[in-house]
Amino acid sequence: MTSSYPQCGHCPYKNSDRLCMNRNGKAPDNCPTKYRESAVQHAVEEMHEPENLNFVRNAAIQEGEGYGNKELGYEHVKPIKPRIQETIEFAQKMNFNRLGLVFCIGLVKEAKAVDHLLCDNGFEVVSVCCKLGCQPKEQIGLNEEHKIQPGSFEAMCNPIAQALILNETGTEFNILMGLCVGHDSLMLKYAKAPCTVLAVKDRLLGHNPLAAIYTLESYYRSLK
Questions:
Q1: CA–CA gap between residue 120 and residue 127 (Å, rounded)
Q2: E strands, 142-188, where?
């Protein structure tokens, strides 16, 4: 029985044969390209709003600039830019001046390097770490067994404060680095400026969560 809501993750067709990639392509009965035309058209209209058009155009341009050898044909296309470079170039295309850098204190070394890199490229950077405010975890109802070091003081992560401070300082574009699952959600919820993610937290896999996905048939089969 086919679901009535989109499940693109279950699409049975290879990319080149999908209706979303090929106007003569194939589509299952719940394909949003075919059966959610009103949403697609509404999105196109929203993209043409003044506050969105330049943003979406520059994002698409940045995507195209991320590949080389295009003149040789699709089979020769290769990626040529890391995400940090694309982030800098996109912010330059948008003429942003003041950037927010929101990071986990566990990535303080990496955040410092990114902060310097952004400044070297002419940006003004407002950076806020997750533990700002030094508020105890007990304030949100945590007990000792919830702490990393039971029996000691632990400051809670404060993603809402991170967002509010960036809002107060007028950042134009915010970059997230390594916030915890859930904390990143709250930061994105409260931030006024558009945000992008440079790195996501994965304590076990060196901040490369896809490593577990790539090995689902072997080392991480227990997740299935």
A1: 15
A2: 173-177
Q: Could you tell me the domains of the chain? A: 82-224 (3.40.50.11840)
* Exposure letters 110-140 (e unless 16+ CB within 10 A, then b): bbeebbeebeeeebebbbbbbbeeeeebeee
Per-residue pLDDT of 13-46, as tens digits, reads 999 999 999 999 999 999 999 999 999 999 999 9
Quick one: residue 67, left, alpha or beta (phi over 0 = left, psi -120 to 50 = alpha)? beta
Which pLDDT value is given to residue 1?
Answer: 45
Phi, psi of 197 (to 5 degrees): -115, 120
Q: In the numeric block, which tokens belong to residue 163?
A: 């967002």
Phi, psi of 127 (to 5 degrees): -115, 135
pLDDT value at position 105? 96
pTM of the model: 0.93
Q: Which residues contact 71 (CB under 8 A, 6 or more apart)?
A: none
How many CA atoms are closer than 13 Å to the CA of 16, on its beta-carbon side?
A: 2
Q: What is the DSSP letter of 53?
A: H
- 10 Å CB burial of residue 94 (0-12, 13-18, 19+) is middle
